[in-house]
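Backbones bend. We report:
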Amino acid sequence: PSAHSPPWGQACETPAVSDNSPPPLRILWIDIDSLRPDHLGCYGYPRPTSPCIDELAAEGVRFDGLYTSDSPCLPSRSALQTGLFGIHNGAVSHGGTAADPFSEGLRRGFRSPRAHGSLAAVLSRAGLWTTTISVFGQHHSALHWYAGFNEAIQDGYNTWSAEGVGRHALDWLARNADRDRWFLHVHVWDPHTPYTGTLEDAEVLGGGRPDWVTEEVLARHRTQGGPHSAAEVMGFGGSGSLFAGNPAFPLLPDSLDSLDDVARLFDGYDTGIRRADALVGRLMDALAAQGVADDTVVVVSSDHGENFGELGVWCDHHTADEYTHRIPGVVRWPGMLDPMAGGADPGLHYHLDLFASLAELAGAEVPEHWDGQGFAEELRSGDTSSGRDELVLSAAAWTVQRSLRWEDRLYVRTRHDGYHGYPEEMLYDLGSDPHLQADVAAEYPEVVTAARSRLDAWESEMLETTPGGVDPHDIVMEEGGPFHVWGELPEYLERLRATGRAPIADQLERRHPEAAAGGGPAKIRYF
């Protein structure tokens, strides 16, 4: 070495640096499919479906006015991952062009802005190791779901039920729970149909089922039509049902012929919730075993809810209504949300708003182009006055609808009825008619006119920043309507007439002449 060189040992020493690494942060997001909040104890349900979730709610914050902007599965999670309403990201259906996000075109560049701005990518840049354990992306071919996740775990349908998913989630926690910064998404399909519970499972829950469905209500529903109606609980019924007459599903009747059948459906759904809740308990036990339960953020939510007779739909999620779109939201964030611990936020929020807030609380930089409006400061302070004045809810996989939800009102505008026979506009008073049995649009024309104007204004504003100014609902309509009804009408018309519902068949034939004649896209079946 030269005379001016430091000694070898000194030259090789690692320079001292200050420790600017972010503090530990662990977030567990438990995503329970098709979960409507009013079947959870913490939301007032009398049956013991959710003791573990209830315990989390008692320690954290419950969100009473949380809604998915878009439904069902693929549109909801696409909105959440991109931070964008379906009208902006383009993924609003389960098939056809609108099942995939819009092309980013010249905006794409070397790096996709949408992928770079995904929820997982935002959290990853904040220094969290991001992992998803879910079959969702593969099942729906929604490969954009994986953008920003450092790790994705799924082995086909073994990552479907709570039991299968739990095996992978518990293994991941055993290996990673004590790491300083991570975000783990655990998705279980329970309680989505088919309801796989047993009669013995249902006995554990006892009574306390919803009782608003009376003999009179059921008799009226038996005369209605449409997929997943009381006369055909699974899809369009008949030979088209994958589960028709299958003894493996004792809590899933083919049709609702009596109130006992209705009770079986509630039992099937509630036992699925109980299984998902049991996984929540196992995950919490695993965190405790690793010594990190008390400083791990836990989020419980869903992609959408489930209808049980609302708008004539049973055991599925077709419409832009209260029960398909309202979802549970429970967040336990020790030390951060203590002012709200054990309480509830009553405000109207999209799921995009909640997760934008969680990203802010995690110290992440929330992209300006997200449609979600964070309210992190309000959560920190315990301020429950935040929330939107109204929400726009969109559906385009079984029907093509947008709704306006405000105060205790729901205005629904239908472009394609999904063969349910809905009128173009409907209005419901949730205060006096919580289960959407009486359309009062004709009684309140001034309310309908005002709601129509506000929805028109929202659509116009959104289309100003939608690629090409194209509404993805227009694409769905141009391609023959919502994916799940493609090619189904001719056979269904025969079923309606064979089961004494000829007037409904005649109405649908007049409304959808091309589809009734066998035109339009053909139905696609893979299994």
User: Anything to note?
Assistant: The chain has a mean pLDDT of 93. The chain has 19 helices and 15 strands. The two ends are 74 Å apart (CA to CA).
